[in-house]
Amino acid sequence: MMKVFVTKPIPEVGIKMMEAAGCEVIIHNEATPLPQEDLIAQCKNYDALLSAGFNKIDAHFLEECKHLKVVSLFSVGYDSVDIEAATELKIPVGNTPDVLSRATSDIAFLLMLAVSRKAFYNYSKILAGKWQGFEPVADLGQELYGKTLGVFGLGKIGFELAKKCRAAFDMNIIYHNRKPNPDAETALGATYVSFDELLAQSDVLSLHANLTDETKGIFNKAAFAKMKPASIFINTGRGGLHNETDLKEALDSGTIWGAGLDVTNPEPMDKDNPLLKMPNVCILPHVGSATQEARNAMAVMAAKNVIAGLKGEPLPTIVNPAVYY
């Protein structure tokens, strides 16, 4: 019987699929993630790893666990894995793309709207007993109708967000990718622009790119300085895409108007982080895919990757296809 180690509880549908395929599934039920050396010690006794959460699967881990037949990620992003090392060791790595695109784009849309109306801050005023009555010029937000949405990384999640913004607010869509997205240009009238043009033209700038060496910290002091003073910065991609100190300075100085984050740098965010108390900032604890529908679909996809890997078959959604060549 093949043995699968799961680093956090995932929806039961995925567990049952693996068990029905003849796997013995052991789940780490502690709230605290296993330190890497403990995870290595565990995985030495297993044939597959299903990683839910930000476990560091670097070259050291992979070398110590090179017997693994598959690493299945309960996520779209794979920046926690040394893909080159996994490929060299012939360990296929799977992820869960597409199934959480709508759910995550919903959170980006929610943050955009919440920031534009200072919703979290105004709610906190009620809790603090500071709702004094009608104030004609207090805590004014801004409307989004006809504004320009800029998307950094216009893949499936960015496409879903752009579609919502186009339908709800008749927003213009611009984007910056490594290469143009002709489908988005046809369906949404999106316009490909340079990175500097994206910064300068966006009223709302939403991040959906992968975290890579090229994109790490790309939204820093220099980038924020090129944005509009009335602009809103949204990040539901990876916290490492932005420099949080530079973001706070940009908000404090009025370089940009507001920010909505579902991902932070680092994660989890400290409860005393000053960003949490700013009226023009809305922050959520990385819940972009947190719907029953999305998480169940992720569990199914992650389980399918495990089962295929244990059978020696190609993974349905593989990050490193070169592992088969």
Question: Short summary of the structure?
Answer:
With about 325 residues, this protein is an alpha/beta fold. The protein has 12 helices and 12 strands. The longest helix is centred in the C-terminal third of the chain and has 20 residues, at about 290-310.
Written account of the structure:
The protein contains twelve helices and twelve strands. It starts with a strand and ends in a 14-residue tail after the last helix. The strands form two sheets. A seven-stranded parallel β-sheet has the order 8-7-6-9-10-11-12, with helices on both faces. Strands 2-1-3-4-5 form a five-stranded parallel β-sheet. 36% of the residues lie in helices and 14% in strands. The chain is of the alpha/beta class and 325 residues long. The longest helix is centred in the C-terminal third of the chain and has 20 residues, at 292-311. It has two domains: 3-99 and 292-324, NAD(P)-binding Rossmann-like Domain (Rossmann fold), CATH 3.40.50.720; 101-283, 3-Layer(aba) Sandwich (Rossmann fold). It has helices at 12-20, 36-43, 59-64, 83-88, 101-116, 119-127, 156-169, 182-188, 195-201, 221-225, 244-253, 292-311; strands spanning 3-6, 24-27, 48-51, 70-73, 93-94, 148-152, 172-176, 191-192, 204-207, 232-235, 258-261, 281-283. The relative contact order is 0.16. The mean pLDDT is 97.
Write the layout of secondary structure elements.
Layout: E1 3-6, H1 12-20, E2 24-27, H2 36-43, E3 48-51, H3 59-64, E4 70-73, H4 83-88, E5 93-94, H5 101-116, H6 119-127, E6 148-152, H7 156-169, E7 172-176, H8 182-188, E8 191-192, H9 195-201, E9 204-207, H10 221-225, E10 232-235, H11 244-253, E11 258-261, E12 281-283, H12 292-311
Parallel strand pairs: 1-2, 1-3, 3-4, 4-5, 6-7, 6-9, 7-8, 9-10, 10-11, 11-12
